[in-house]
Design brief:
By secondary structure, the chain is of the alpha/beta class. It has two domains: about 5-70, Hypothetical PUA domain-like, domain 1 (Ribosomal Protein L25, Chain P); about 75-250, SPOUT methyltransferase, trefoil knot domain (Alpha/beta knot), CATH 3.40.1280.10. It contains seven helices and eleven strands. A hairpin with a 3-residue loop joins strand 4 and strand 5 (about 60-70). It is globular and about 60 Å long.
Length: about 260
Amino acid sequence: MQRYFVAAEQFGNSDIRIIGEDAHHAVRVMRTKPGDKFIVSDGQSRTALVAVREATPMLIRAEILEMLSADTEPSWAITIAQSLPKGDKMELVIQKGTEIGAYAFMPFQSERMIVQYDGKKEAKRIERWTKIAKEAAEQAHRNRIPSIEPVHSWRELIQSFGSYDLVLFCFEREGHAAHGRGIRSAVREWIERSDSASEPSVLLIVGSEGGFTDREANEAEAAGAVMVGLGRRILRTETAGIVGLTCLLYESGEMGGA
């Protein structure tokens, strides 16, 4: 069933309004007409099954038939901190990460990233990334849209560590059989010694195409990050965050894990 997100003010006590691009898409692309039903969420706490009363490309009015339980969100709030990759790879990370269950995305700058960061284009890129996250959240029937944070500098990334219960730093050498640990052992060690709540916030840090320098790894570890590997194979930057996120959700019990 088709799903749409609306702003809180468009979600009334007995009816909802869909406006702008969403209304145009529903009417022109999905051929929505009076009597059709779909699901609407305010991206926070309210999700409802609605029936269309009026449908135009500018405005859809629908009656709330039933309030639905908001139970599709993971119990762990996992933010993927992704060093800016080249091309449209960030779009893939956001799209697939949203489908899987990421809470937020934090793009950042690192020493070996290939792309040339242009702050003047940041607002336009974040607008594009936010739209991708919204569409992916609708497709995946999520109850909220992951937030896209502004591009962080390396120093800003380090300073953000204190906002999370657990910070995992994906470092290539940790994946070697004779060195380091994987996500499973790191998470289970953390759970054993942690007094944290059952719904922790986790920051998963992934490097760009060039990976991280030893200096960056040392700085991150000194600031409290736990070094982890993602196996003995070398993953592309756009693959690493998706794999790490999936492993974390498995360990949280989201996918039948711990």
